[in-house]
Amino acid sequence: MTNELTPKFNPTEVEAGRYEKWLEADVFKPSGNPDAEPYSIVIPPPNVTGKLHLGHAWDTTLQDIIIRQKRMQGFDTLWLPGMDHAGIATQAKVAARLAEDGILPQDLGREKFLDKVWEWKDEYATTIKEQWGKMGISVDYSRERFTLDEGLSQAVRKVFVQLYNKGWIYRGEKLINWDPKAMTALSDIEVIHKEIDGAFYHITYQIEGSDEFVEIATTRPETFLGDTAVIVNEKDERYKHLVGKNVILPIINRVIPILTDDHADMEKGTGVVKITPAHDPNDFEVAMRHDLPMINMMNNDGTINENGGKYEGLDRFEARKQIVADLKELGQLVDIKPVRHEVGHSERTGVVVEPRLSTQWFVKMDELAKNAIANQTTEDAVEFYPPRFNDTFMQWMENVHDWVISRQLWWGHQIPAWYNEAGEMYVGEEAPEGEGWTQDEDVLDTWFSSALWPFSTMGWPDENSADFIRYFPTSTLVTGYDIIFFWVSRMIFQSLEFTGKSPFHNVLIHGLIRDEEGRKMSKSLGNGIDPMDVIEKYGADALRWFLSNGSAPGQDVRFSYDKMDAAWNFINKIWNVSRYILMNAEDISADAVSSALTKVANKTAGNVTDRWILTRLNDTVERVTEQMDKFEFGVAGHILYNFIWDEFANWYLELTKEVMFGEDEAEKDITRAVLLHVLDQVLRLLHPIMPFFTEEIFEKLPNTSGSIVVAEYPKVRPEFNDDKASEGVAMLIELITVVRNIRAEVNTPLSKAVPMLIKSEHADFLNAVSPYISRFTNPSELTIAKDLAVPEQAMSAVITGAELYLPLAGLINIEEEIARLEKELAKWQKELDLVNKKLGNERFVANAKAEVVQKEKDKLADYQEKFDTVKARIAELKEN
């Protein structure tokens, strides 16, 4: 059989070669339809330091879901892929690889070292693209970009020069965060503050010319080598007599002044504060106010420099140990008090960051920040999902500091500034003419080029670029909340400055993936999960289902193999359903399906279950599309799951067996057509989330052609809506379910036929569907009427629109039946209380949509009817 599926779903077989076929068919490229609305995404570029992690798999999955759905909906979609050079991280990785062979970057020199980095880039970019393929992401590789491409490099130079000419980029000596391992400056947001064990070291400084001492407390005793003053508060009576005098720094014996400044807190510690301007941000501000000298006492690698006297050459922490020992020997170490405090660590290398005076390049942020803040009150505002992250963005922009953008690295965009021996500096997009000019050796922060990503990848600074005109601003960005400051904020203010537009309309924020215990995944904990390992075991579709359904926007999600098992089971369920349908409908044509559906819509053929499932399909299409448009993929997935597993597979498929095992061939053809249509629509709804197996099944359907990638996304078809059929089958399903539950309660298996009586105003309908009732409940005698005598000894139940009685004489205990019904009565009372409370809320009634309020009123009437019926039945049993 050509359309036959294998007996068991095998993700490895289904996904093998599928991605390559898509690429060969060019189905991921924009349609080029000038009448279609454009929809564009630029992929958050992974850095070329290694394999993809689960967080990036989450990014790409959600973006792929969006772009696949929009493509199917007829948008002219562009998903532009690319990668980031990741300056610090990549240079560190390559340096570590060279170190294994005993080679230092300095041994090679800049150019040869960069050759090695480019080799690394090519190797890992290939790996990442292979992993993208395994994830199934539908990007247009003909537009792939890299942050060091010439086009992007041109954009970087243009932006730098324009900001410099406006006075918004400047070079100066300021206190910055220094990474002693990478030996480079860091921006504030590249510093992670971790709580560690430390100590307050209480040290005495002698007053010059006397036997008096003052006591200071510091967590970094080694920095006293760079002290240039001590301060006290001018209101502090304890030290007024010392103001204007000097203290002698122990060991190095340098004399420094005692000054007054409000930074000294009389209530904190001893009230005396040492000032180390070149190694503390607060001390730097004090030094600026008092015109104090600033002594840098540390080399780039974190060792003590020539200003450290006998400690020169020691690592900063080794120097601390030596200094503490020497102070103790001198009798000037008063006390050591343990403390738990936060200390800045490098986001990239993990080492303790050193505040350090250094000459660097900075972006002046005040005007850029003002523009970004003001834009959020306009029609061009970026919409954050969830909205609370707009507050996160605004708070950071309102408190942002100048951005240090120079990095002491070789890998990256070299700063477009040149110097000559005359002390002149030239800043330009190209090198200055003439000889004697040397380019600044520093490179720019990786985020400087990444901030231009949405428009530099579209061809800017050529504003006449077709892609820039067509696809910018981009439609949606998907990323984790951990890089709102790093990347999202910078893209917004740079895009506003250079294009006059927001870089994207929407930003969908997701959380972090944690382990089953809720811990953040990290190398130190050894709890990281490689998405490629998960795909190897479960397939990409199962992983994508988990990632899209794991949580609401902005929320963290816990990875669980139990959840992966559930995802695989769901796919296998659909596979088995599809196999059953294909086995029973292999010869039907697309025209036959269309004709049959028209007959069902016109009610000239088909039965109530056919009309019910098509109505339920319409509802599912409407609700799923609505939730997808709101980026509520978890909610959309839940709706799909319930429809596919419960209504389609567990109910409709089983109900159709009454027809499929019957003799009426015309009716069978109608049912086959409906089965195929619903399966077709289910696959299309699922495809954005789970692309591989949906394509595998779709291409085997006898009523479809082409790739599901470019198939039309389902739409609501009003002609299929049939409220009566929907209500009727809902009553039928509830009736069958209740009978099965009652049988279970009295331990009466379905194989044993028992009499059944149904009292209902809908007796005509129930009689019409009695073959279904008989098939699924096995009554020995079935009586359905609008009015009938209620048997005394019977199990009873109330469902919407009907009362059910099972005369099980000898099998029931009246007292137990009363107890059961009283529990049911309590259940309906609880439901009534909830609805009454909601309808009694004036704000709800006033603000909710009319159809929502009406739905609650309908519930109230239904629950009240059930409550009254159960209550009456209890009274009858008690009387008898």
Per DSSP E runs of 2 or more residues, the count of β-strands stands at 29
Helix content: 40-55%
Structural class, by secondary structure, is alpha/beta
Number of helices: 29
Q: In terms of per-residue confidence, which ranges show pLDDT below 50 for 5 or more consecutive residues?
A: none
Radius of gyration: 36 Å
Distance between the termini: 63 Å
Largest sheet: 7 strands, mixed
Strand content: 15-25%
Report mean pLDDT, rounded to a whole number. 91
Characterize the overall form: elongated
Could you characterize what this model shows?
With 880 residues, the chain is α/β, with parallel strands linked by helices. The protein contains 29 helices and 29 strands. The strands form 9 sheets. Strands 7, 8, 9, 10, 11, 12 and 13 form a 7-stranded mixed sheet that branches. The longest helix is centred in the last third of the chain and has 30 residues, at 850-879. The radius of gyration is 36 Å and the shape is elongated. The chain starts with 10 loop residues before the first helix and ends with a helix.
Provide a quick synopsis of the model.
45% of the residues lie in helices and 17% in strands. The strands form 9 sheets. Strands 7, 8, 9, 10, 11, 12 and 13 form a 7-stranded mixed β-sheet that branches. The protein has a 4-stranded antiparallel β-sheet with strand order 6-5-14-16. The longest helix is centred in the last third of the chain and has 30 residues, at 850-879.
